[in-house]
Structure formats: structure tokens, C-alpha cells
Design brief:
The complex is a heterodimer of chains A (about 625) and B (about 180). Chain A is of the alpha+beta class and about 625 residues long. Chain A contains 16 helices and 28 strands. Chain B has 2 domains: about 60 residues, DnaJ domain (Helix Hairpins), CATH 1.10.287; about 80 residues, Monooxygenase (Up-down Bundle). Classes of the chains: A alpha+beta (about 625), B mainly alpha (about 180).
Chain lengths: ~625, ~180
């Protein structure tokens, strides 16, 4: 059946005039994809109309299954059914706590753990990429074409390793990432647009596996994250686990195998969910061992056994307020995010702490994806520049270096607004020292051993000098996604070393080769066609950006410069018509190179205009 | 390349002085970020995006430096060729140091006694002394242009800042150990 297309007033009906932008909430227990349609963010459901995709990946004999089809195998094939993989992103075996809590076979990988599955050893990045690929397919089906850009949310408390792992998973899934966005910020975007409220807001986000509290200030079109805090290993799953332990204790069961463990965990989760709205929940099942369980969990008991978990969320709230130099009284509203905030004891505790009932008018499961879609729509250029707001984010954890004696020297303090670049000088310790080991860490503790190690690299070729004579400038640059790169330079000689912090867990060559091999076997993906399509999307983006720049600021160019850019532009247009991916990529590269100096002059002009208190658009209006 | 030669005050269109119109700084900061932030250039060329990253980081750096009195004073001194953090010149008046030592003792007594209000008093006194120092700096830097002389009050202010951070950390641990 053919459907008629109706375009928004003032919007072009041309298929490519509007770009396909999506927001993805890559959650611990479930994930969602949303887009902006007719000015309103909406979640894209699957073919059966279900908005949520369970974040579950099952490695079956027949291939990989994601979401509901995988869910069915939690109980009968737990070892090959990966749930809550987000907890393992950028984490080692030692980080996950008691491995007996999980039915998986963990293997230590380089920096990040791996899991042995039927399909072979898999990293959390690969498992997450399966989830993202499923969402990409869903969105491409709904939007009828390849995605131009995606915003993916991460907990505000995620460190560099976890953020990088998320971005790697997106690349592996073939998604062009516009931005990693903090989940609470996304939630505020979803709420802020509806309500246009000014003031200080607290975003209390208790998801399946992570807890985040963010303090945001909303003022005329600016979203400013003042501080973030939280616990990257605390979430709704822990409430399930408390119930699970309670069942074990009260049913007097022998040690359980993985199948029964999984079955009881599901029963525990069902009981937890039932206790939102009920006073008691029955827990009845028969195990593979023949033992039967027949218990009733009362809501008072549930509140008692989870009290310490609720308390654990309130401490970071106080810390975040203190970091923002604010008190409870300064907070105008509290937004609840994450399915776990449906639990009545959470709502009560939050209400008591802030002295006001929290805002719950958006679906706590969807709010993050909706906000991400709004941001994606803006970043991809679908919105008119007039209705603008700006999002100023902070880095959640301090970045620093190891100095003598295993101590940390902080270079970028936590809650610094990003992007940021900071340089700190260090010197040599011994006479004639010609190399310096640089160890980059993230965390708040004084001792390096208590912080997370992000990367180690060496600056070599320092000319022999007396101890303390060398001047080594170490520069930390953090981009808008919160990702770090570090350069070190000896000032007197200019010797330089750089590393993009692809931390200790960077994928090995063998793994990359295998992943590529795997992706070739994905029948639905024609890799060559896909690579060309991606190059074309990139070419269109750069062409459009260059044309817009020329229309606005051509007066900044000398005649020969303008001619060089026009020539490079014409070459891109010509290559765009063909099917040679390499030729197109090369033409785009030449165009990028030709516009370098022009871009710098334009940026300077924008700064001058901003200083004069006018936006570029209004300046142009005035000149017309 | 991007013009990074402007000093922080010029970047925001503010006079190079210690007195600050905080509202004007905030407004200029937001206007500038509104132009240069990477989110504004997400669909630009590679060069646009790289420059946006650099410019936005530069604007953040300048804003951080001017917003806080200590870093603003230190930056102002650096514009006049004075390194306020020169490690070969760290002297502070004896009576000043004795006063801070006494404060630390009072604070540690308050913590031992789980006495939050007493700790608060010490912190408030510290803040009072910092505000007086800022008054002195305004007179010294803006009215008399006595930059060399300003080194001591700037160092004192930084010292107070460190003491203040330690006291606030103590307050935080005290708050978190006392049940609500």
C-alpha cells in the first residue's frame, strides 16, 4: 500500500532535505531509539509496536538474537544470553564484584573483560554493538533510509574508558555518532522543551545498573550542568539481587546452577515490579533440582531489605549539591528518570530529601531517548538556527597523572566545563634522564592505585639534562563527548609524543580482524555498498557546510583562495556522481584541506560578532 | 589559524582589571559559546569542527580564569609580567600563617566533637578574611596599579583557598557521618 507523504508547513517534502537523526538510550536493562517527527520527539517501536528493546543478546547455534527473542533464553541458556552488558563496558573482571553473581564465563581481556560464548569470546563492546545494530535496523526501517547521525546517551558518571567503549560499539554497529550525551542532560532536554522552566533542577536517574544525580541550571536557552555524581555500579538490578538473596535465605535452597539462578533472578524482578502498586508479591516456582519455592514478599519487607540501597543514592545527591555550591532549598524541581524510580520507596525518599514531590509526567523509561532525539535533530541541522539552546556539559571525574611516589596530580578537575584543554609542566627526576613514562589516570583519590588507569605512554628522546632542567608540558584535551587525548612535549627541544586515550582496553588487531570478518557474514549488510553510502553522506555534509560558509563569508577569501575552494567543491560534486568510494573520500579530504584557513577566519569573525552581542543571522539581516 | 592572541579580558570585551561585572562576563561567555561550541558545528567541515573544539576550550579556559578572584588576580599579574606562583618567592607574613594554623586547630577540634556549627563558624571567618583580601586587591590593583605589591595578598588569597577547601572537605565528612 502506498502512503501519501504530508510535509510540515515550511518544510521541504524532498526526501533528502530532512536528515535522518536518531537518539539512542543504550540502557542496562533495555534500550530505545527515538526521532523527531513533526517537531515532536517520538520513540520508534518495533514491528510488533513495542517501544523497548530488552538489552539482551543471545548467541544461539543459528546466530545472534537480540531483544525479546533473546529474553526467552535467559532461563534455558544463561551462559550464552548476555544481559546488563552495560555494566561490563570498559571494565575488568576485578571490577564486576563476585563473579558467581553472573552465569557467564569471564575471561580477562586487555583492560576490559571478555565473555566466553557459544559464538566465541565476546567483548562488551561487541555485545553492545549487537544491540545498537538492532536499533539502527529498526530506525532505518521506520525512516526509510540510512541514518545521518545518532546521539547516544551514557550515564553522566561514565569515565573515559566507558565512554570510549560506547563510541566503539556504535562504530562497530555502523552508526555515525554526532555526540555522546549524558543521560540526565537528555532527560532535562526532554522536559525543558515541554515546560521551558528556568531554575536549578536535580535529575535523579536510577536505571537498571547505574545511578546518576545531576544538578542542572536552565537559563534562557542554556542548559548548564553544574555538577554530577552517582554510582556506576548501583541500579534496579541490585534491588532484584536483594530480593534474590531474600528468596535464597527463606526458601532454604542448596547451591544453584546457572539455569536456576537465572530463573530466580527473573522471579525476583517480577516481584519487585509487582510491589509498585501492590502490597505483597507471591514468588512461586519449581527449580530444575526439584526444589520448590513458595514465598510471599510484603512491601514492608521489600522496603526493609532495600533500605541501604536507597540510602546509597542519597549520599551522591548531597555531594553533587555541595559541588555545585547549592543547598536543597535552591532546587526548583526534581526529575525522575529510569524504570527503577517507579518504586514507591524511591519516590518517597526523594520527596523527603528535597521537600517536594518529584516530577514524573514523562515516561521514566522513554525520557532519555526522547531528549537524545531532540539533540540529534538539532546537531544534524534539521532545526532553524533561530530557536537555539546551548548545552554546556561537565567532565564527571578528575583527570590526572601519576607523579613520584604513586600520587596523582590532577590536571583537569572534575565538573570542569568541556571541551577543555589544560597544560601542566613536569620535569625530570634524574640527571641525564632521556625518557619519561606518562601514566594517565581518572578519579578523585590521592593515590594512583585507587584511581582508574586510562593509558600509559612514553615520551622518548629527551636530550640528557640535569635533573629538574627539562620542561615537559603535558596537555590534556577533553572533547565535547568527554573523551580525552593527551600530548607531551619537551619545551626546550620540541620532542613530542601523543596518545588518544584508547585506554588500556583498546581492541587488539586480531579482534578487529575477527569483527570485520563477522560483519561480512552479516548477510543483510552489503559492506561495499554501505561504505559508499557512508562516504556519500559525509560528502553531502561537507559540501553543504562549505556552500553555507561561502554564502555567508565569501568576503573573507582572496580571489585565488575562493577559486581553489570552488575547484575542490566541483571535484567533490563530480566524484559524488560516481561509485568510486576511494576517489570520493580523497576529494572530500582535499576540500577539507582547502577550507582550513577559511574556517579559522570565519571562527574569528563569529567570535567578534558574538562579542558585539549579535548573532550571525541578525548581523546578516542588518546588512541586507 | 585561530586568533588566540587576545587576552582573556579582551576575549569577553571586559576591561583588564580586578573589579568584575560578573553578569557581563556570564553573558559574554554564553554568547561566545553560542558561536563556537562544537554542537554548533556538528554538521560543519572537519576544519570547522576542529576549530570549534579549540575555540570552545579556549573560551572555557578564559571563563574559568576570570570567574574566580584568585585566578583573575594571578592572570592580571601575569599580564604585567609577574608570576604569582613563582616558587622562589613564597613568603607570607608570620601573623597570617599563625592565624591559619589556629583555624585548622579549631576546625579539627570541631570535627572531633562532631560540632558542625562550630566548624561553620571557622569557615565563615575564613570567608570574611578572603573578602577583606579581595577589597585590598581591588584598591591595590585597580586604584593604585601597584602590581608588584599585590603579590602578597594574592598569595594569601590562594593560601586561604586551600585552607577553605580542606575545611569544606572536613565539613563534608562530618555531614556524612552524622545521621540525618
Amino acid at each position: 500500500m502506498a502512503l501519501f507523504q504530508i510535509s510540515e508547513p515550511g518544510e521541504s517534502p524532498l526526501p533528502h532535505a530532512r536528515k535522518r537523526a536518531i537518539g539512542i538510550d543504550l540502557g542496562t536493562t533495555h534500550s530505545l531509539v527515538a526521532t523527531v517527527r513533526n517537531g515532536t520527539p517520538v520513540v520508534l517501536p518495533d514491528e510488533q509496536g513495542r517501544p523497548l528493546l530488552p538489552s539482551i543478546v543471545h548467541y544461539a547455534d543459528a546466530g545472534v538474537r537480540v531483544g525479546y527473542p533473546a529474553m526467552a533464553h535467559q532461563a534455558d541458556d544463561p551462559r550464552n544470553t548476555i544481559v546488563s552488558v552495560k555494566r561490563f563496558m570498559g571494565r575488568g573482571v576485578a571490577d564486576v564484584g563476585d563473579p558467581r553473581r553472573f552465569p557467564y564465563r569471564f575471561v580477562e581481556g586487555e583492560g576490559m573483560l571478555r565473555m566466553e560464548t557459544r559464538a566465541g569470546v565476546r567483548s562488551p563492546v561487541e555485545v553492545s554493538a549487537e544491540i545498537l545494530r538492532a536499533l539502527r535496523m529498526r530506525a532505518e526501517g521506520a525512516l526509510e533510509g540510512p541514518i545521518d547521525g545518532a546521539v547516544i546517551t551514557v550515564p553522566a558518571y561514565f569515565d573515559d574508558a566507558q565512554r570510549q567503549a560506547t563510541k566503539d560499539a556504535a562504530s562497530l554497529a555502523g552508526l555515525p555518532v554526532l555526540r555522546l550525551l549524558n543521560e540526565p542532560t537528555a532527560a532535562a532536554l526532554a522536559y525543558g522543551l515541554d515546560n521551558a522552566s528556568e531554575g536549578v533542577y536535580a535529575i535523579y536517574d536510577l536505571g537498571g545498573g547505574t545511578f546518576d544525580i545531576s544538578i542542572l541550571r536552565l537559563t534562557k536557552g542554556v542548559f548548564e550542568v553544574l555538577s554530577t555524581n552517582g554510582d556506576s555500579a548501583l541500579g534496579g538490578d541490585d534491588f532484584d539481587h536483594r530480593v534474590f538473596c531474600w528468596i535464597l535465605e527463606h526458601a532454604g535452597l542448596p547451591p544453584l546452577g546457572p539455569v536456576d539462578t537465572r530463573r530466580l533472578m527473573i522471579k525476583a524482578r517480577e516481584a519487585k515490579e509487582m510491589l509498585t502498586g501492590h502490597d505483597a508479591a507471591p514468588i512461586v516456582t519449581t527449580l530444575a533440582t526439584g526444589d520448590s519455592v513458595n514465598l510471599t514478599l510484603a512491601v514492608e519487607t521489600f522496603t526493609d531489605i532495600t533500605r541501604t540501597l536507597v540510602q546509597k543514592t542519597l549520599q551522591p545527591v548531597r555531594r553533587a549539591l555541595r559541588d555545585a555550591r547549592l543547598t536543597i532549598d535552591d532546587v526548583k524541581g526534581v526529575v525522575l528518570v529510569g524504570g527503577a524510580t517507579r518504586m514507591p520507596q524511591i519516590r518517597r525518599a526523594v520527596g523527603e530529601l528535597f521537600g517536594q514531590p518529584p516530577l514524573v509526567n514523562l515516561n521514566p523509561d522513554e525520557v532519555v531517548a526522547l531528549g537524545a532525539a531532540v539533540q540529534a535533530d538539532k546537531l544534524v541541522g534539521n532545526r532553524a538556527s533561530g530557536d537555539d539552546w546551548l548545552l554546556l556539559d561537565v567532565i564527571p571525574l578528575s583527570l590526572g597523572l601519576e607523579t613520584m611516589g604513586g600520587l596523582t596530580e590532577k590536571v583537569v578537575p572534575r565538573n570542569s566545563t568541556i571541551p577543555i584543554a589544560r597544560t601542566q609542566e613536569f620535569t625530570t627526576f634524574k640527571d641525564g634522564q632521556t625518557a619519561m613514562a606518562i601514566h594517565v589516570v581518572q578519579g578523585e583519590r590521592e593515590k594512583v592505585a585507587d584511581c582508574r588507569s586510562l593509558a600509559r605512554f612514553e615520551l622518548r628522546g629527551i636530550p640528557p639534562m640535569a635533573a629538574g632542567a627539562a620542561r615537559i608540558a603535558v596537555t590534556f584535551s577533553v572533547d565535547a563527548d568527554g573523551l580525552l587525548s593527551v600530548t607531551a612535549r619537551e619545551r626546550t627541544t620540541g620532542v613530542q609524543a601523543a596518545v588518544t586515550v584508547k585506554p588500556s582496553y583498546g581492541l587488539t588487531d586480531g579482534e578487529i580482524a575477527r569483527m570485520l570478518q563477522d560483519s561480512f557474514t552479516h548477510a543483510a549488510d552489503d559492506m561495499t555498498a554501505r561504505a559508499l553510502a557512508e562516504a556519500q553522506v559525509e560528502a553531502d555534509r561537507v559540501t553543504a557546510a562549505t556552500e553555507a560558509a561561502l554564502a555567508q563569508d565569501a568576503d573573507l577569501l582572496a580571489g585565488d583562495e575562493a577559486r581553489a575552494i570552488e575547484a575542490a567543491l566541483a571535484a567533490v560534486r563530480q566524484a559524488r556522481g560516481g561509485t568510486d568510494r576511494a576517489a570520493l573520500a580523497a576529494a572530500v579530504e582535499r576540500l577539507n584541506h582547502a577550507t582550513d584557513a577559511f574556517a579559522a577566519r570565519r571562527m574569528d569573525r563569529n567570535i567578534a560578532r558574538a562579542l558585539a552581542g549579535r548573532r550571525v543571522d541578525s548581523v546578516l539581516e542588518g546588512e541586507r | 589559524m585561530l586568533d588566540f592572541s587576545r587576552n582573556h579580558f579582551d576575549l569577553f570585551g571586559l576591561p583588564a582589571q580586578f573589579r568584575l561585572d560578573a553578569a557581563a562576563l556570564d553573558a559574554a561567555y554564553r554568547r561566545l559559546q553560542g558561536e563556537v561550541h562544537p554542537d554548533r558545528h556538528a554538521s560543519g567541515t572537519d576544519a570547522d569542527r576542529r576549530l570549534a573544539l579549540q575555540a570552545s576550550a579556549r573560551v572555557n579556559e578564559a571563563y574559568q580564569a576570570l570567574r574566580e578572584p584568585i585566578t583573575r588576580a594571578e592572570y592580571l599579574l601575569s599580564l604585567h609580567g609577574i608570576d604569582a606562583r613563582d616558587e622562589s618567592d613564597t613568603q607570607l607574613p608570620i601573623d597570617f600563617l599563625e592565624r591559619q594554623l589556629e583555624r585548622r586547630e579549631q576546625a579539627s577540634d570541631a570535627v572531633d566533637a562532631h560540632d558542625s556549627p562550630a566548624l561553620r563558624v571557622v569557615i565563615d571567618e575564613l570567608r570574611g578574611e578572603a573578602l577583606e583580601l579581595e577589597d585590598r586587591l581591588r584598591a591595590c590593583l585597580d586604584d593604585r596599579h601597584a602590581y608588584a605589591e599585590a603579590r602578597v595578598p594574592v598569595r594569601e588569597l590562594r593560601f586561604l583557598h586551600k585552607v577553605g577547601e580542606d575545611l569544606r572537605a572536613l565539613e563534608a565528612t562530618l555531614d556524612e557521618t552524622v545521621p540525618d
